[in-house]
Design brief:
The complex is a heterotetramer, with two copies of chain A (326 residues) and two copies of chain C (318 residues).
Chain A (H helix, E strand, L loop, with lengths): L2 E3 H15 L3 E5 L15 H5 L4 E3 L4 H13 L3 E5 L10 H8 L2 H4 L9 E6 L14 H5 L5 E3 L4 H13 L4 E6 L6 E3 L13 E4 L4 E5 L3 H14 L4 E5 L2 E3 L3 H11 L2 E8 L5 H10 L11 E5 L8 H6 L4 H12 L2
Chain C lengths: L2 H27 L14 H9 L6 E3 L5 H7 L3 H8 L32 H16 L5 E6 L6 H12 L4 E7 L2 E2 L2 E2 H4 L16 E5 L3 H19 L2 E6 L17 H8 L3 H11 L5 H24 L15
Parallel strand pairs in C: 1-2, 2-3, 3-7, 6-7
Antiparallel strand pairs in C: 4-5
Helix pairs in contact in C: 1-2, 1-3, 1-10, 1-11, 2-3, 2-8, 4-11, 5-6
Classes of the chains: A alpha/beta (326), C alpha/beta (318).
The structure holds thiamine diphosphate (2 copies) and magnesium ion (2 copies).
Amino acid sequence: MREITYAEAIREAMSEEMRRDENVFLMGEDVGLYGGAFGVTVGMFEEFGEERVRDTPISEAVIAGAAAGAAVTGMRPVAEIMFMDFTTIAMDSLVNQAAKMRYMFGGKAKVPMVLRCPAGSGTGAAAQHSQSLEAWFCHVPGLKVVAPSTPADAKGLLKSAIRDDNPVIFVEQKLLYRKKGIVPEEEFIIPLGKADIKRKGTDVTIITYGRMAESVLSAAADMEQEGISIEVIDPRTLVPLDRETIIESVIKTGRAVVVHEAVKTGGYGGEIVSAISESEAFDYLDAPVLRIAGKDVPIPYNPELEKAAVPSVAEIKEAVRKVMNR
Amino acid sequence: MREITYAEAIREAMSEEMRRDENVFLMGEDVGLYGGAFGVTVGMFEEFGEERVRDTPISEAVIAGAAAGAAVTGMRPVAEIMFMDFTTIAMDSLVNQAAKMRYMFGGKAKVPMVLRCPAGSGTGAAAQHSQSLEAWFCHVPGLKVVAPSTPADAKGLLKSAIRDDNPVIFVEQKLLYRKKGIVPEEEFIIPLGKADIKRKGTDVTIITYGRMAESVLSAAADMEQEGISIEVIDPRTLVPLDRETIIESVIKTGRAVVVHEAVKTGGYGGEIVSAISESEAFDYLDAPVLRIAGKDVPIPYNPELEKAAVPSVAEIKEAVRKVMNR
Amino acid sequence: MDEKEKMVEMYKRMNEARSFEEKVSFFFARGMVHGTTHLSVGEEASGVASCMALEAYDLITSTHRGHSQVIGKGIDLNKMMAELLGKATGYCKGKGGSMHIADIKAGNLGANGVVGGGHGIAVGAALTQKLKKTGKIVLCFFGDGAANEGSFHEAVNLASIWRLPVIFFCENNFYGMSMPLSKHMNIKDIVKRAEAYGIPGYIVDGNDAVAVYRKVKEAAEYVRSGKGPVLIESKTYRWLGHSKSDANVYRTKEEIVEWKKKCPLKRFRAYLLKEEILTEEEADAIERKAKEDIEKAVEYANNSPEPPIGTLLEDVYA
Amino acid sequence: MDEKEKMVEMYKRMNEARSFEEKVSFFFARGMVHGTTHLSVGEEASGVASCMALEAYDLITSTHRGHSQVIGKGIDLNKMMAELLGKATGYCKGKGGSMHIADIKAGNLGANGVVGGGHGIAVGAALTQKLKKTGKIVLCFFGDGAANEGSFHEAVNLASIWRLPVIFFCENNFYGMSMPLSKHMNIKDIVKRAEAYGIPGYIVDGNDAVAVYRKVKEAAEYVRSGKGPVLIESKTYRWLGHSKSDANVYRTKEEIVEWKKKCPLKRFRAYLLKEEILTEEEADAIERKAKEDIEKAVEYANNSPEPPIGTLLEDVYA
Ligand SMILES: Cc1ncc(C[n+]2csc(CCOP(=O)(O)OP(=O)(O)O)c2C)c(N)n1
Ligand SMILES: Cc1ncc(C[n+]2csc(CCOP(=O)(O)OP(=O)(O)O)c2C)c(N)n1
Ligand SMILES: [Mg+2]
Ligand SMILES: [Mg+2]
């Protein structure tokens, strides 16, 4: 099986979809000749030309707004906002326009667009270039939200997102771009809304996504030694959320921890905790569902501070021990 | 004791603070001669003049951005975004600038500004004029978030917000503007971060805020007849959240329901559920903490549909019965 | 339709717009409709004639003050009135209301409750036309107040560099809610802003239906030929308050009276008579018919069912 | 400081900026610093001379490419270098880094990682000066690319109608990251945009320190007198890549070479010698001193402690 990077997987997904469907095109800052700030679109300008790989001015509001307008009239734009932090400038286009057009117009519109945005800290770029804002979008009916943690997931889910008839916020992980993983050579898609059990276990369920999946898996591997068997569930799609898979697992294990990089307060972890607590799994809980998440601070520049702002493997293990010791 | 409306209470708070501190001023669309889209600032232009009650163009990004710039240089702006839905245009100014300046600059800046924004549905203004987006702001370290449910709370909290040295998102409730309540004549302030027990009870704790407080109180009064005693806690300030008061109550009652108007998925309810579940109250829980919240839809225009999108008194009662019957 | 037929049709639609809004205004004054609405009485030439200058297959993005615009584009008055009354038979099944009248299939990409919210959508729609080489163009309505939103700037710039087929059509009624143009921007003519993006700009008398029609026709030709966008500033005036709750404190009665004298309907009628396109009787008949059609629309709407509560959860996702 | 002393100081700061960035570039090339940085080598006249034309009490908002700007404003090089190395002694206690150098007390309201993020802040800061009648003005730095952000449009318009004391100073280096000006806007001179807001606009040769200094001085006078904002377009060029990872595929080597010939430091040195403000020896000494001071700053930074992990949770709220 071949291994490719997360960035390459994303590029493959876009390239395949663009070859398959002439309505698919890219737009964003420096996605053309430059190949994207993180090199994700390198070579695509050369293959597809400037009409289909469109460099935009630094104008995030209209990047998203024009994507919505193109989508509602028959195209399938894949727009990039260079850093998720700058979706702040595009919120009206995404939230009030793209997400709501279909509903406001009584179901008579569809807005098949994807907004790609690299998220997360760890690059030393400080407070305005490091945020994980997926929770905002999860709170907007009409949007779907995807946050893959592996190259294969990234590829399969992006292809689904591009084919989906709704606006999809596709959250990419900066720190994963260069990580390799096995990705099948033959074409495949992964449906939105289907969680993946990244590791089977029996004692504790950890629900996580994006960059944190790696830390969680590493904690799980370590704890196996201690005799604790952890099941790791990656919902992959945050909206729609695959509640069944999560609940089934928690019914089995009776214990759950939710881990994400985004700051804790108001994060999507609260939704997952609530989903569990509202379900039949509540009666099987032997311990409270804990959240391990980013500290409630803007991301600092200093590398040690920056690391400390994000859940560590040690913190994850500690949380597991806590729920085990109840 | 005198009664005044929620809108009048807000106006009094601003006027008193403006008389007290010449650094306080207002800015926003149509806040001057027009008196604000909801009449909140009526008469203030006449009293304070156009230098301190500043009409802006329709430019939400710079309304919030200029407020941040004025605040960091020594003023105490109270900026208004006419509908909370349009904070979407101001997110960069609020989230990447106002909220983060202090931290990014190593604690060497302060940004004492208030952003007032009328939220909520019920006015027949449909999907782009009816949202309750407080959860977004609660997820941004550096911001405080206040959401008063009565005229007295609105007045006391707004005065605190204006005196606070941090950016405060002050969520006003459109449907409450004309509701009257007792407000002391003498000056008073209500500290941020302090919940209010709106009704004492022993069987179930309901945590709610904003417009929903009324429905919850009415449900509580009804259920008293059925012999169910409900304690109603209004955190009033969502960030910082008064966890102690909530947890204490849930330890006492063993049952909790969270009610808000904002759509359920990704709402602040999840945070409150998690805060309870992570606390020592978990061991006292006799039932899962339920969330009763807005349906996961954009707000529709038709008045019956619009009403159905928001928690009803009946739904609240049903939830209470559910947690009682465990 | 030849030019003459167009003119007649235009007069008809302008009258429909006027009658529609008079009816809506009546409803609101009596609290018979939920919510709020923004009436374009006095601006019918601007909204209707601009759309009539487009081909039927062209597209528009409309605004919160969009009734004249969408009637100009050609609309089913029954479905429109039904939408205003929140009925299941409305364009948006009662979910949109006055601020969200849309008819995607017919090229009306929707009114917008967000000032400036249509700019990006129009640009994206124009991009579709360019990429698909449809030959269609997009007309983007916006107000003088909207020209101060950042979205205007970003959208016009993008349309300009990509040479997209879009007409930015500014209905300058001299006020953004209560704020007069003279206070919300430091220039006299909004069209000045066209230069900032390297595109042509034109001013037109927005109360002169024929002038609006001609100017948009000319602009449409330019835009359709692939030369890029155009900005048109149509100077006009709203007779009524900004929305249902507006005491008009920010302007004088005299000013309103002055503008009422420039009624676009009267003016166009005089033109049609003078050019002998219509006789007095024909013009009267059109006016009467418009009123009747609105009454019929009201009847249709009134007889239409409310949307079932179950539809609340439908239409969120495709 | 009289004018001559100013010129000498200006030369000193320009050299500090150059030496600072050469050092930073060296660090980054060797992976000795975390994160990314945006160097302004080649743009020193623009950043430094503009600030030198202000009074010391005036304010600025800086950008992601802000080293020359903040050194121009007058800064403690030790604290700046310490910030770049993420140390506790840095301006932001190691929390900000290259993109967030700020010194509020000294009137530097902060570099900004968001393109266009400083526009609103500058306008608000200028409003403070107007309301408090301080007599101070604000200079808002931004790039050619930033001029396409909606925030630019909203901010300049607001400053114009409120007649706020702010100079919008565009460092046009002809690229927004990889996108050439010729592709990201459809006008040759950004200054054209001033007209859209009814304010004066000037073009200045951004590689000519004296020209920049004079133009900003003149603008400052206008702005300080209460007449409202001014837009200045300073045409210059960045010699190095956009940020640390940039292969420069979007421009030619020849273009870079051409611009290097227009080195603002060399040019200013020649001027200073010609005007007999400095002798060769004095100029050499300044250059040497700048290099030394940067070395000292590096030493200071290297010897400074890392911020304690406990500080992570501090400074979120006042
Ligand atoms: C982004 C946004 N800000 C504010 C409002 C509230 N609002 C609705 S219409 C309006 C005035 C718009 O003025 P203009 O663009 O000139 O259009 P007009 O109403 O005059 O037709 C305002 C402020 C809004 N709907 N959207
Ligand atoms: C809102 C936003 N969009 C995109 C970026 C990424 N980015 C950083 S600098 C830059 C180019 C800025 O160009 P310009 O304004 O001309 O300044 P220059 O870098 O040329 O000095 C871009 C796209 C950003 N930091 N902020
Ligand atoms: Mg107007
Ligand atoms: Mg540039």
